C-alpha cells in the first residue's frame, strides 16, 4: 500500500487575520491519525511558522501536507522576493520583516531556525521568484 | 468510558431541529429520525446545547432536594452566588435563606479559595512546564482531555474548591457534632454537578448531595423574604479575595500573576488552547479557562446576567475585603489545610477521541476515504442531515453511521425523510 493523502492550503500575503488557520487544520488531521502528541506538536509548530512566513514575507503561496505510510512532508511554496542569503536567514534573530509585521508580534527572526529545529529533515531553496521549504518527518 | 455528564435529552420534546447540533463544540450531537442524540464520550457538560434548545428538550439531571434530619447537613455556598447579590447584607441574607431551607450550616466556599490560592502560587512558582492551566472548571478540563491531549500535563493537579471545602467542613464539624455529616453543593452549572458526583482525578467525591440552583430557586426565594435581621447578624463570611473566582479573571487576580491569560466561553477557549498546543504563550505562567461566558457567574443555573454579576461581584468584594483579615488568613493558610489533601488522587489522563481508527495506517486509509467523500458533499454545512458539518458527515460516512443518501442537498429533503 503506498497511498499518499495530501491537503493543500492557499495562503495570501498580509492575511494576518487568518494566520494559523491552515496549521491548526493540519494539527487536527494529525490528531485524527493518532500520531503521538510530541510529533503532532513539532509538525504543527513547523506548519505554523511556515504559514506565518508566507503571510509576512511573500506575495502569496501554498502550504501542503503529504501523508504516507512512512513519512509526512510539509511543503511551503511561495512566490515573492526569495531569500538573498539563506545562511544569514537561518540565524536566530535575523529578520527582514516589515515594521508592520513586527507590530503584530511577528518577525522575531526565529521562524526558519525553529522550523529546522522541529523537523527531521529540513530543505530550503530560494531564488528571486520565490522560496520552497520542505520539512520531512519519519513515521514509525 | 462511563457516563460522565449531566446533560439529558427529553425525547418527546425534541423536534429534531439542528440548533444543538450547530452549537456543540465537541461535535457530540447528531439528529437521526428527527430526534437528537448525544454521544456520551464527547459531551463536556458545557451547557451550550441546553441554552440553544428552544423546545426545552435538553436539560440536566434533576436531583431532589433531600435534607435528612438524622444528619448534620452542611451546604457549600455556590461560587456563582458571589456575583448575584449587590451588598454584604444581601449576600448574608442568601446564606441565611439557604440555612433556613433546613441546613445546619452554610459553608463559605470563598474562604477555601483563599487557602487554595496560596498552594497554587507555590505550585506555579516551582513548576517549569509553563503556562499552567487552572483545574477549576470541570468542563474546560474535560475539553482538554478530549481535544488537547498534549496540554493535560499542564493542568494544576489540585482538587476544586468545592471538594476541598467539603473536606474542611467535615474536619471542622466532625468535632462539633455526633451526627454523621452530609455535604451538599448547590451547583451553578452541569459541569460542577457532574464533578460533584464523580470528580475528575479523584477516587471519590466528598460531596454527598447536589442541588442545582434551578431546583433551589423556588424554595430559596420564599425563604429569602422571610430572613430576619437576627438571622443575618449571626452569619459570618470571609473577608478575603476568594469571592473573586465567581467572575472570569478572578483566579488571576487572587493569584496576583502578571503574566496570566483568562479565557471564557468554550469557543474562545478552543482558540486559546489550539494556540497553546502550537507553543504560543510559553512566556505566560498561568491560564484560566472557563467554559461559561463571564466565568461561573455565567453558569447555566445562575440567574443574573454575567456582566451585571461582574459589577455586583466587584462592588461586593470592594466593600467586603479586609486587608488585615486577609493577611492573617494567608499567613495561616498552610495550617488551615494541613489535614486536607488538596492534590488529585490520580493523574488527569487524555482521552483521544480524535483518532479515526485503531492505528496510523488504518486511520490514514480512512482519512483518504473521508477526503473522497467530502469532495462529493455540498460543503455548505447546512446540518440538514443531522450532522454538524459536511466534514463530520464525511467522517460519519467513513465510519458507516451515515450514507451519502442522507445528504438532503444531494438527494432532496423528501427523499431523505421517506
The end-to-end distance of chain B, rounded to whole angstroms, is 35 Å
Q: Give the averaged pLDDT of chain A, no decimals.
A: 92
Give the oligomer, counting copies of the same chain as homo and different chains as hetero: heterodimer
Helix content of chain B: 40-55%
Mean pLDDT metric of chain B: 94
Q: How much helix is in the residues of chain A?
A: 25-40%
Task: Tell me the fraction of residues in β-strands of chain B, as a range.
Answer: 5-15%
For the largest sheet of chain B, list the strands in their spatial order. Answer: 6-5-8-9
Q: Structural class, judged by helices and strands of chain A?
A: alpha+beta
Biggest beta sheet summary of chain A: 5 strands, antiparallel
Question: What form of chain A results from the Cα inertia axes?
Answer: globular
Count of helical regions of chain A: 5
Figure out the total of helices of chain B: 18
> Low-confidence parts of chain B, pLDDT < 50 over ≥5 residues?
none
Number of strands of chain B: 11
Count of beta strands of chain A: 5
Can you walk through the features of this model?
The complex is a heterodimer of chains A (140) and B (418). Chain A has 140 residues and is α+β, with helices and mostly antiparallel strands. Chain A has five helices and five strands; from the N terminus they run E-H-H-E-E-H-H-H-E-E. A five-stranded antiparallel sheet of chain A has the order 1-2-3-5-4, with helices on one face. In chain A, a hairpin with a 2-residue loop joins strand 4 and strand 5 (130-138). In chain A, helix 1 (21-32) packs antiparallel against helix 2. The two termini of chain A are 15 Å apart. The mean pLDDT of chain A is 92. Chain B is built from 18 helices and eleven strands. Chain B has helices at 19-23, 48-52, 88-100, 109-126, 138-147, 161-173, 190-197, 213-226, 229-233, 250-255, 266-277, 306-320, 323-331, 333-336, 360-376, 390-398, 408-411, 413-417, and strands spanning 7-9, 29-32, 35-38, 58-60, 72-76, 105-107, 132-133, 181-187, 209-212, 260-264, 286-290. In chain B, the strands form four sheets. A four-stranded parallel sheet of chain B has the order 6-5-8-9. In chain B, strand 8, helix 7 and strand 9 form a beta-alpha-beta unit. Chain B is globular and about 70 Å long. The model of chain B has no long low-confidence stretch (mean pLDDT 94). At the A-B interface, helix 1 and helix 2 of A face helix 11 and helix 15 of B.
Amino acid at each position: 500500500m503506498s497511498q499518499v493523502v495530501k491537503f493543500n492550503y492557499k495562503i495570501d500575503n498580509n492575511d494576518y487575520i487568518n494566520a494559523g488557520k491552515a496549521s491548526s487544520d493540519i494539527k487536527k488531521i494529525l490528531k485524527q491519525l493518532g500520531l503521538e502528541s510530541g510529533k503532532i506538536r513539532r509538525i504543527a509548530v513547523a506548519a505554523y511558522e511556515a504559514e506565518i512566513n508566507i503571510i509576512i514575507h511573500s506575495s502569496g503561496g501554498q502550504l501542503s501536507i503529504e501523508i504516507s505510510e512512512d513519512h509526512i512532508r510539509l511543503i511551503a511554496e511561495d512566490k515573492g522576493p526569495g531569500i538573498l542569503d539563506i545562511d544569514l536567514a537561518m540565524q536566530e534573530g535575523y529578520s527582514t520583516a516589515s515594521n508592520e509585521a513586527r507590530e503584530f508580534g511577528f518577525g522575531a527572526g526565529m521562524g526558519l531556525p525553529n522550523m529546522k529545529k522541529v523537523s527531521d529533515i529540513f530543505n530550503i531553496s530560494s531564488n528571486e521568484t520565490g522560496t520552497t521549504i520542505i520539512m520531512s518527518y519519519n513515521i514509525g | 468510558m462511563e457516563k460522565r455528564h449531566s446533560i439529558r435529552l427529553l425525547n418527546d420534546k425534541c423536534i429534531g431541529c439542528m440548533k444543538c447540533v450547530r452549537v456543540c463544540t465537541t461535535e457530540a450531537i447528531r439528529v437521526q429520525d428527527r430526534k437528537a442524540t448525544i454521544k456520551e464520550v464527547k459531551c463536556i457538560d458545557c451547557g451550550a446545547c441546553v441554552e440553544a434548545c428552544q423546545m426545552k428538550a435538553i436539560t440536566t439531571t434533576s436531583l431532589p432536594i433531600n435534607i435528612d434530619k438524622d444528619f448534620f447537613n452542611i451546604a457549600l455556598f455556590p461560587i456563582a452566588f458571589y456575583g448575584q447579590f449587590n451588598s454584604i447584607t444581601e449576600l448574608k441574607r442568601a446564606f441565611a435563606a439557604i440555612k433556613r431551607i433546613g441546613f445546619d450550616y452554610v459553608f463559605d466556599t470563598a474562604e477555601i479559595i483563599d487557602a487554595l490560592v496560596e498552594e497554587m502560587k507555590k505550585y506555579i512558582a516551582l513548576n517549569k512546564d509553563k503556562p499552567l492551566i487552572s483545574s477549576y472548571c470541570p468542563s474546560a478540563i474535560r475539553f482538554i482531555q478530549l481535544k488537547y491531549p498534549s496540554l493535560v500535563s499542564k493542568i494544576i493537579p489540585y482538587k476544586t474548591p468545592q471538594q476541598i471545602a467539603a473536606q474542611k467542613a467535615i474536619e471542622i464539624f466532625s468535632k462539633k457534632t455526633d451526627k454523621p455529616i452530609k455535604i451538599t453543593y448547590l451547583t451553578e452549572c452541569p459541569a460542577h454537578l457532574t464533578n460533584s458526583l464523580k470528580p475528575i482525578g479523584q477516587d471519590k467525591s466528598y460531596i454527598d448531595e447536589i442541588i442545582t440552583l434551578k431546583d433551589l430557586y423556588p424554595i430559596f426565594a420564599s425563604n429569602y423574604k422571610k430572613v430576619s435581621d437576627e438571622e443575618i447578624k449571626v452569619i459570618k463570611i470571609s473577608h478575603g479575595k476568594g469571592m473573586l473566582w465567581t467572575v472570569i479573571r478572578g483566579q488571576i487576580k487572587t493569584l496576583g500573576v502578571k503574566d496570566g491569560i483568562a479565557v471564557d466561553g468554550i469557543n474562545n477557549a478552543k482558540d486559546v488552547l489550539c494556540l497553546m498546543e502550537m507553543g504560543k504563550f510559553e512566556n505566560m505562567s498561568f491560564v484560566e479557562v472557563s467554559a461559561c461566558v463571564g466565568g461561573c457567574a455565567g453558569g447555566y443555573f445562575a440567574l443574573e446576567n454575567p456582566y451585571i454579576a461582574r459589577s455586583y461581584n466587584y462592588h461586593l468584594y470592594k466593600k467586603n475585603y479586609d486587608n488585615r483579615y486577609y493577611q492573617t488568613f494567608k499567613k495561616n493558610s498552610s495550617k488551615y489545610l494541613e489535614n486536607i489533601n488538596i492534590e488529585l488522587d490520580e493523574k488527569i489522563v487524555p482521552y483521544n477521541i480524535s483518532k479515526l481508527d485503531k492505528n496510523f495506517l488504518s486511520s490514514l486509509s480512512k482519512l483518504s476515504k473521508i477526503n473522497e467523500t467530502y469532495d462529493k458533499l455540498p460543503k455548505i454545512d447546512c446540518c440538514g442531515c443531522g450532522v454538524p458539518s459536511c466534514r463530520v458527515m464525511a467522517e460519519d460516512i467513513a465510519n458507516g453511521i451515515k450514507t451519502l443518501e442522507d445528504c438532503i442537498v444531494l438527494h432532496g429533503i423528501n427523499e431523505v425523510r421517506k
